[in-house]
UniProtKB/TrEMBL annotation, chain A:
<dbReference type="GO" id="GO:0005886">
    <property type="term" value="C:plasma membrane"/>
</dbReference>
<comment type="similarity">
    <text>Belongs to the binding-protein-dependent transport system permease family. FecCD subfamily.</text>
</comment>
<dbReference type="GO" id="GO:0022857">
    <property type="term" value="F:transmembrane transporter activity"/>
</dbReference>
<protein>
    <submittedName>
        <fullName>Iron ABC transporter</fullName>
    </submittedName>
</protein>
<keyword id="KW-0812">Transmembrane</keyword>
<keyword id="KW-0813">Transport</keyword>
<keyword id="KW-1003">Cell membrane</keyword>
<keyword id="KW-1133">Transmembrane helix</keyword>
<dbReference type="GO" id="GO:0033214">
    <property type="term" value="P:siderophore-iron import into cell"/>
</dbReference>
Automatic annotation (TrEMBL), chain B:
<dbReference type="GO" id="GO:0005524">
    <property type="term" value="F:ATP binding"/>
</dbReference>
<dbReference type="InterPro" id="IPR003439">
    <property type="entry name" value="ABC_transporter-like_ATP-bd"/>
</dbReference>
<dbReference type="GO" id="GO:0016887">
    <property type="term" value="F:ATP hydrolysis activity"/>
</dbReference>
<keyword id="KW-1278">Translocase</keyword>
<keyword id="KW-0813">Transport</keyword>
<keyword id="KW-1003">Cell membrane</keyword>
<dbReference type="InterPro" id="IPR017871">
    <property type="entry name" value="ABC_transporter-like_CS"/>
</dbReference>
<keyword id="KW-0547">Nucleotide-binding</keyword>
<dbReference type="Pfam" id="PF00005">
    <property type="entry name" value="ABC_tran"/>
</dbReference>
Length: 326, 273
C-alpha cells in the first residue's frame, strides 16, 4: 500500500469517527435528551432544548475538537523540532507563559475577555523569549532550544506557584481549573477551529521536509532542506497552535504527548500521514474526554485535563509494553 | 559538449574546485591555503590522524558549514549558496559519520528519503523512486531488510542502509565520512567496488574520509593528507600514499608491502613497523 493511499484511508476513517465523537459529545450530558431531539435542537433554534445544544454543548464540543487537534499537532511538531520523542507542546514554556497571564487576570478579577487576552499575551511572550534566547548566537541547536524552553517553563512555574499561594481563597478554584485545562467556563470554539484548520494547512507543505529533518540537521541540509527556515517555521506553527489551545481551554495535558505517539504506533512515522492523523485523533480524543468530564460525576464537572491524564497514562503504558514484546 | 554523466573519458572539466580554503575550528587549524580539483569519475581519499579535522573539512566541503572558513568552494562552477539548498542536494550527497535515528522508520522509508531533493514540494515518491530505492538496497545486499525498523539494525547494517540512501539520492559528487565504518571486510570491499564501478560507468566522483591507506591506494585516484596545524599534502594516490608520508602522517613508522592485484594494479599495504 503506498503512503498516499494509506493517508486517504486513515483520514477518511478518522473523519467518520470525528463526526461520531461530536455526535456523542452533543447527545450526552447532565440533561438527558434523545438523539432526535438533539438533532432537532441543532437544526432548529426554536426547538425545545435547542439552547442546551446550541449554546452549551455545541461550542464546548467544537472547542474540545479544535484544541485536541491543535495540541496533538503541536506535540508532533515539537517532537520533530527537538528530535525528542518525549517533547510535548508545553515543553518550551508556552503553557507556563499563558498560565502566568491567565492567573494574573483571575487574580485581578478580569472577565473572560481579559483572561483570554492575558493568557494569549503570556504565551506569545514566552514564545518570543525562548526564540530570542535560543536563537541568540545563531546556532539554534536542539539542546539550546530545549534548555532555554525548560528554563522559561520553570521560571513561569515559580511565578504560578507564587500567584497560587498569595491568591484569595475564592479565586483559587478558578485558577486550579484553568491550570488543569477546562471547557466548562463558556468557551468560544472559533479561534481553536480556525487555528486547527489554518495551522494544519500550513504544515502540510512542510511534511516531507520534516521526514528528512527528523534524521538530523546536517543530513536534512544535505538532502536539500533549508534547515533553519523550516525549523523556525515549525517552531512558530507549533507555538501558535499551543497558544491558541491554551488560551481557549487552559493547559490540557497529555493530549500533545500521548496522541502523536499512539498515532505513530498505528500509522508509522511518515509526517505526511502522521500530522493529519494526529490532528484528527487528538480532536476525537479530547471530545470524548470532555464528554466523560461532564458526565463522570454529574452534575459536578471534572477539569478535562484530569480525564485526559487518567485515560492517557494507562493507555500509553499499555501500548508501550505491548509493542516492546512484539 | 560538457555532460557530467557523459561516458567520454576526455571530459576534463573539474566538477569541484577548492581554492585557498582556510579552516579553523576552535583551537584547531584544519587547513591553510588548501586547494585541489576533482574531476568526473575521480575518487579522492582524505586521511589524517584522529582529531585533525577530517570530518570538519569534509562537512565544509559538502556545504555544511563548521567553524571559521575562508576561501572558495565551487561545485560545478558555483557556490553552494548560489545553487541553493535543494539544487545543491541534487548534485552532492553526504554520508554522515554516524546515523542518529531517534524515531522508528522502516529501512525502505529511510532509503527513499534520498529522493527528497528530486521531488517537488507537493509530489509523492513515484514508482520509479521506489524502484531506485529498492535497487540501491539490493546493491548493498539489504533487500530482505526493506520492512525492518532502522532502530533494530546493527551498526554495520545501518551503515549499509546509509550507503543505500546516498545511492538513492544519486548525486554527481559523493561526500562520505568513513563510509566503511562498522562494515565487515567483505562489505568494505563491496561498497568500494560499488563506488568504483559507479565512478567508471556514470562518471560520478567521491571524496571520502578513510582510515585504511591500503584501501585508499587501491580504490582512489588521489589523496589528501592532513598533518595538523593546517599543513596538508595533495596528489595522486600513488605519489602521496608512501611509507614515508604515512609514517609522518600517523607519527608511527610504517612498512610498505606491495602485492600484485588480480586487476594487474600493484596494491600497497601499510603495516606498523
Amino acid at each position: 500500500m503506498t503512503t498516499r493511499y494509506r493517508l486517504v484511508l486513515v483520514v477518511m476513517a478518522l473523519s467518520l469517527l470525528a463526526v461520531g465523537a461530536v455526535a456523542i459529545g452533543l447527545s450526552v450530558g447532565s440533561v438527558k435528551m434523545p438523539f432526535a431531539e438533539v438533532m432537532a435542537g441543532l437544526l432548529d433554534p426554536a426547538a425545545p432544548g435547542a439552547s442546551v445544544i446550541r449554546d452549551l454543548r455545541l461550542p464546548r464540543t467544537l472547542a474540545a475538537f479544535g484544541c485536541g487537534g491543535l495540541l496533538a499537532l503541536a506535540g508532533a511538531l515539537m517532537q520533530v523540532l527537538l528530535r525528542n520523542p518525549l517533547a510535548d507542546p508545553y515543553i518550551l514554556g508556552i503553557s507556563g507563559g499563558a498560565g502566568v497571564g491567565a492567573l494574573l487576570a483571575i487574580f485581578f478579577g478580569l472577565g473572560v475577555a481579559g483572561l483570554n487576552g492575558f493568557a494569549f499575551a503570556g504565551a506569545l511572550l514566552a514564545i518570543l523569549i525562548v526564540f530570542g534566547l535560543a536563537h541568540g548566537d545563531g546556532s539554534w541547536t536542539q539542546t539550546r532550544l530545549l534548555l532555554t524552553g525548560v528554563m522559561v517553563a520553570a521560571g513561569c512555574g515559580a511565578v504560578i506557584t507564587l500567584l497560587l499561594s498569595i491568591a484569595p481563597e475564592e479565586r483559587l478554584r478558578g485558577m486550579l481549573f484553568w491550570l488543569m485545562g477546562d471547557f466548562s467556563q463558556g468557551v468560544n470554539p472559533t479561534y481553536a477551529l480556525i487555528g486547527v484548520a489554518v495551522i494544519g494547512l500550513l504544515t502540510a507543505p512542510l511534511a516531507r521536509d520534516l521526514n528528512v529533518l527528523i534524521r538530523g540537521n546536517d543530513t536534512a541540509k544535505a538532502l536539500g532542506v533549508s534547515v533553519s527556515m523550516v525549523r523556525i517555521a515549525i517552531y512558530l506553527l507549533a507555538s501558535m497552535a499551543t497558544a491558541v489551545s491554551v488560551t481557549t481551554a487552559g493547559s490540557v495535558g497529555f493530549v500533545g504527548l500521548v496522541i502523536p505517539h499512539l498515532t505513530r504506533m498505528m500509522v508509522g512515522n511518515d509526517q505526511r500521514v502522521l500530522l493529519p492523523t494526529s490532528m484528527l485523533a487528538g480532536g476525537i480524543f479530547l471530545v470524548l474526554a470532555d464528554t466523560l468530564a461532564r458526565v463522570l460525576i454529574a452534575p459536578q464537572q471534572l477539569p478535562v485535563g484530569v480525564v485526559t491524564a487518567l485515560i492517557g497514562v494507562p493507555v500509553f503504558l499499555y501500548l508501550l509494553n505491548r509493542t516492546r514484546y512484539q | 559538449m560538457m555532460s557530467l554523466h557523459g561516458s567520454s573519458v576526455d571530459v576534463l572539466k573539474a566538477i569541484f574546485k577548492v581554492a585557498d580554503v582556510e579552516l579553523r575550528v576552535g583551537q584547531t587549524q584544519v587547513s591553510k591555503a588548501l586547494g585541489f580539483e576533482v574531476y568526473p569519475g575521480e575518487m579522492l581519499a582524505i586521511l589524517g590522524r584522529n582529531g585533525v579535522g577530517k570530518s570538519t573539512l569534509l562537512s565544509c566541503l559538502a556545504g555544511l558549514p563548521r567553524g571559521e572558513m575562508a576561501g572558495d568552494i565551487l561545485l560545478g562552477g558555483k557556490t553552494y549558496q548560489a545553487w541553493g539548498d535543494r539544487a545543491s542536494a541534487c548534485w552532492r550527497g553526504w554520508l554522515a559519520q554516524k546515523q542518529q535515528d531517534q524515531f522508528s522508520a522502516t529501512v525502505l522509508e529511510t532509503v527513499i528519503s534520498g529522493r527528497h531533493p528530486h521531488l517537488n514540494r507537493w509530489s509523492w515518491e513515484s514508482a520509479d523512486d521506489r524502484a531506485l530505492a529498492l535497487a540501491s538496497l539490493a546493491a548493498v545486499g539489504m533487500t530482505d531488510f526493506a520492512a525492518r525498523d532502522v532502530l533494530t539494525l546493527s551498526g554495520g547494517e545501518r551503515q549499509r542502509v546509509a550507503v543505500a540512501t546516498i545511492l538513492t539520492q544519486n548525486p554527481t559528487l559523493y561526500f562520505m565520512d568513513e563510509p566503511l565504518a562498522h562494515l565487515d571486510l567483505n562489505h568494505q570491499i563491496e561498497v568500494l567496488n560499488l563506488l568504483r564501478a559507479k565512478a567508471k560507468r556514470e562518471r560520478v566522483s567521491a571524496i571520502m574520509v578513510l582510515h585504511e591507506p591500503g584501501l585508499a591506494h587501491r580504490y582512489c585516484d588521489s589523496a589528501l593528507l592532513l598533518f595538523g596545524e593546517g599543513e596538508w599534502l595533495y596528489g595522486s594516490a600513488s605519489a602521496v600514499l608512501t611509507a614515508d608520508n604515512l609514517s609522518r602522517l600517523y607519527g608511527y613508522p610504517l612498512l610498505q608491502i606491495e602485492n600484485p592485484g588480480a586487476d594487474g594494479q600493484v596494491q600497497r599495504w601499510f603495516v606498523p613497523a
